[in-house]
Each structure stands twice: as C-alpha cells, then as structure tokens.
TrEMBL record:
Recorded metabolic or biological pathway in which this protein acts: Amino-acid biosynthesis; L-arginine biosynthesis; N(2)-acetyl-L-ornithine from L-glutamate: step 4/4
SUPFAM superfamilies associated with the record: PLP-dependent transferases
Protein's name according to its UniProt entry: Acetylornithine aminotransferase
Lineage: Bacteria, Pseudomonadati, Pseudomonadota, Alphaproteobacteria, Hyphomicrobiales
Subunit structure comment from the entry: Homodimer.
Record keywords: Amino-acid biosynthesis, Aminotransferase, Arginine biosynthesis, Cytoplasm, Pyridoxal phosphate, Transferase
Organism of this sequence: Mesorhizobium liriopis
C-alpha cells in the first residue's frame, strides 16, 4: 500500500480486523470472517478465549516484566509442565519460533563442543523446510528466495530432498552435529513425514552420536491431535523448538531438550531479555490448562476427521480446482490445480480466511476448539469457493 511507514516486506490483504471471538473475526465495518488461518496456527484456542483473556488481564494488573535476572515462578511452572508432558527435561523460553530454532541450533552445537568435538557443528535439513527468518534459520531452511541478497549464508547447514534417505546418508559425516526436521512441514505445503522415516532418523542419530531436532513450531500444541506431532511416531527428539500455538496469540516460543542434549548450555552462554516474561508465561500456562484438559486432544482428532472427509468430498466434486487433500489433524492442506492464491482469494470472497503454502497448497489451520457446526460452515464456504473457481474455468 502506498504511503505507509511500514517496511514493504508483507503483501498484505486489504483487510483490517477490530475484534475476534472464537473462530470469527470482525472488521471495523462489522463484516464477519470465518478464520481458518488462525494467525498462521497461532490462535490455537481462537480469538478472545475467556480463560486466556482472564489470565492475561490478571497478570497485567500484577507484573509485566522483570527480566531473567530474577526467578519467574510461572516460567518455572510452564517449563515443568512442558517437560512433564514431553521427552524434555529442560526448557528455554523465547519470543518467537525463529528464536526457539536459534536456541535449538546453538544447543546442538554446544553439546558437541562441550563433549570435546567442536568440529561437529553441521546440521542436516530438508528441502521445503521453514525454520524462520533470522540469518541462521534462513540458512537452515535453505530456500533461495529467503537467502538472496543477505550476504554469505550462515555456514554449517546441509540440505537434502524431502524424504530422501539415500541423500541423507550420503551427506551425514564426522562433522554432522544434528538432523533438523519438521514432523509435519507447514510452509512447505503441509507435508507430514512418515512415522517410519522419523524412527529411522532416531536410529541413525543414535548410531552416529548425532542429535535429533524437531521443529514443532507449527505442528505442535495439539494441532495434530496429540500435544506434539512426534508422539504419533514414538520417535522422540533430543531437542525441539515450539512457538505459535503455545501463546494462543501472545508471542511465546520455547526450546525443549533432554538434560543430556542441553548439557552444554551452561550459565552465560545464551540469553534473552524478553523471553519467558510474566505476561507470556501467564498465557502459555493458560493455553496448556485448556489443551491438556481430559478429552481435548481426542476432540481435535475427531473434528479433524470430519473436516478431512468434507474436504475429500469437495476435492471429488471439483477436480478442476482441487488436486488432493493432505495433512493431519487440524493442519490440513488443499493441493490446488488452480494457483493457490486464487483459491485463497475465492475463499476471502466467501468471507473465510486461509493461508497459502508452498507446493501450491492452501493451508487450513482453524482454532483447535472449533465446533462441528463451524467446521460445516467452513466446508460450505470452501465448496462455494471451489464452485466459483470451477465455473470461471468452464466459462473461460
Ligand atoms: C512459523 C514457523 C517458524 C518461525 O516462527 P517465527 O515466530 O515466525 O519466528 C519456524 N518453524 C516453523 C515450522 C514455522 O511454522
């Protein structure tokens, strides 16, 4: 948009929302949109969830920030709860996904350094990956469009094609510190990694003394119907980056690790001013209160099935628009025949929000507490969008 003081780095839709409730967003003009973008998998419990609003308001009236010079009881509590519900023993809180990944990368390198093998600093990643926009995470992601023009690529990342075991074995060497993978690629086009592939990665890492790092920034916190997507595979990581859903809309990220993997991260080697502050921790704990409630995650799986079945019917009805439905849980992708931006646009015409992804996919990431009726409403709008595009194709 012309005349704005903001960086031109975002191609924003001409929409401004003023308020939200659950799966609905409302513009200043009072137009209501069904939100299946959820701030890119961030608004895990929708907008204005009463338990989250209360937690934030109560904390806001007490204390906002003290820095990590002092103890933050709610940070310890959230760390303990994350550890109790995962493979991890140790947690470092950040403000974003990229920072969580930075911590994961540093933790892996520092582990080998502390073991007397500083030459082991290389990390293997997979094509289509997205790990953030810092200098190290664009090197990890390896996408040309994000690296171009930003100077020398941070050294130490080796990328192999998605799911290519032979290429992976060929690139692993005496300098390899870790393998970094999203159990479900988000940005790359909603591509789940086979459980058997994660199990093979686990074994390879064990055999070679490498660390296995998961990026669950997008697929974690209940998105796939388990608290973390890796639980479907029983292949546990040594280190894991999370963010997005854990804050429910408040900026929170975290790097989780086993005590062994985190053993190089001693006092003074890493830090953050804002990470884990009382406001963020109040909201993070409130998100866990809801997601860990008995039955919540089973409901996510049940609703996901409903949604996937409905989407499959739409794919069958409009093969000129939809190529396939992919994904898992409430992290679903519509692989398009038409350019994915056209489907996102047609959905916006139906007052519904979704997110484009790589591989010509439209991502559907509704709040995890969406109701069956809201899913049906969403499916109706997606059907109307596909129908409109199909008519346009036939008329052309
Ligand atoms: C969004 C995302 C990131 C980066 O998170 P930011 O908060 O934008 O820095 C990293 N990894 C994955 C898988 C993501 O989806």
């Amino acid at each position: 948009m012309a005349g704005t003081a903001l960086y031109d780095t975002f191609a924003r839709a001409p929409l401004a929302f003023e308020r939200g409730e659950g799966v609905w967003l409302e513009t200043r003009e009072g137009e209501r949109f069904l939100d299946f973008a959820a701030g890119i998998a961030v608004n895990s419990l929708g907008h204005s969830h009463p338990h989250l609003v209360k937690a934030l308001q109560e904390q806001a009236a007490k204390l906002w920030h003290v820095s990590n010079l002092y103890e933050i009881p709610d940070q310890s509590r959230l760390g303990e709860r994350l550890a109790a519900n995962t493979f991890a023993d140790k947690v470092f809180f950040t403000n974003s996904g990229a920072e969580a990944l930075e911590c994961a990368i540093k933790t892996a390198r520092r582990y080998h350094y502390a073991k007397g093998a500083p030459e082991r600093f290389r990390i293997v990643t997979f094509e289509g990956a997205f790990h953030g926009r810092t200098l190290a995470t664009i090197a990890a992601g390896g996408q040309k469009k994000y690296l171009e023009g930003f100077g020398p690529k941070v050294e130490g990342f080796d990328q192999v094609p998605f799911g290519d075991w032979a290429a992976l074995e060929a690139v692993v060497g005496p300098e390899t510190a870790a393998i970094l993978i999203e159990p479900v690629q988000g940005e790359g086009g909603v591509r789940p990694v086979e459980a058997s592939f994660l199990q093979k990665l686990r074994k390879l890492c064990d055999d070679q003394g490498m660390l296995l790092i998961y990026d669950e920034v997008q697929c974690g916190i209940g998105r796939t119907g388990k608290l973390f997507a890796y639980e479907w595979s029983n292949a546990v990581p040594d280190i894991m980056a999370i963010a997005k859903g854990i804050g429910g809309g408040f900026p929170v990220g975290a790097c989780l690790a086993t005590a062994e993997a985190a053993s190089g991260m001693v006092a003074g080697v890493h830090g953050t001013t804002f990470g884990g502050n009382p406001l963020a921790m109040a909201v993070g704990n409130a998100v866990l209160d809801v997601v860990l409630e008995e039955g919540f995650l089973d409901e996510v799986s049940r609703k996901a099935l409903l949604m996937k079945q409905g989407l499959a019917e739409i794919a069958d009805a409009f093969p000129d628009v939809v190529a396939e439905i992919r994904g898992t849980g409430l992290m679903l992708g519509i692989k398009c025949v038409v350019p994915n931006g056209e489907l996102v646009g047609a959905m916006r015409d139906q007052k519904m929000l979704a997110v484009a992804a790589g591989d010509n996919v439209v991502r559907l990431l509704p709040p995890l507490n969406i109701t069956d009726d809201e899913i049906r409403e969403g499916l109706n709008r997606i059907r109307s969008s596909a129908e409109a595009l199909s008519h346009k194709l036939k008329a052309a």
